[in-house]
Amino acid sequence: MSKLVAPSVLAADFANIQRDVEMINSSEADWFHIDIMDGVFVPNISFGMPVVQAIKKHATKPLDVHLMIVNPDQYIKTFKEIGADILTVHYEACTHLHRTIQAIKAEGMQAGVALNPHTPISVLEDIIQELDLVCIMSVNPGFGGQSFIENTYTKVQQLKNLITFKGCDTKIEIDGGVTNKNANNLIEVGADVLVAGSFVFGAEDPIETVKELKALIN
Questions:
Q1: Would you say 8 is a known binding-site residue?
Q2: Residues with catalytic roles
Q3: CATH code of 115's domain
Q4: Total domains present in the chain
Q5: Is residue 83 part of an annotated ligand binding site?
Q6: pLDDT tens-digit profile of 42-93?
Q7: Angle subtended by helix axes 49-58 and 17-26, to nearest 10
Q8: 69, 83, 155, 167: least surrounded by Cβ within 10 Å?
Q9: 198 is in an annotated binding site
């Protein structure tokens, strides 16, 4: 299976969002990664529904929407309506995670769960077979441009072992501090999808950067 690259729109130029979306369309990137932050679950506010709708209007690739918010259940139907293809919620924000995952799937979206750096893989043992995606936070959520947490490699290996043991095909996504320096190591320990924000959008030639990252991991 081809390994995927999902540029994080959080690092895009919001004064030129259509331009940046069309740039990703024309690149070898696979998904748009869209971080929704509420200033409550994480200490930052990103953007909401109108921006997602604007991205969807121009995007030709799937929208991988990552909810870093409290009470995600109340917005599941809305995010389906505005164009999310994959919807990821945080384990730490969901009291009834199984019910939340069922609700996402009932809307016809792929369902993902994100884990903060301090949350152990073991919390997913009873639900891993229900998940299309697990997003491992390799930085503390809330801000772009942070340094990669080295313990991520161990967590990815543990998650890969769990997925293999349970016999499911859940994808492993890494979000935070991904560059060409750690991409290959992440793939080697089991990652399937790499989210890259400032590494792509801050590059002199983002399209070439995506191309090189794809070549490196496949």
A1: yes
A2: 35, 175
A3: 3.20.20.70
A4: 1
A5: no
A6: 999 999 999 999 999 999 999 999 999 999 999 999 999 999 999 999 999 9
A7: 40
A8: 167
A9: yes
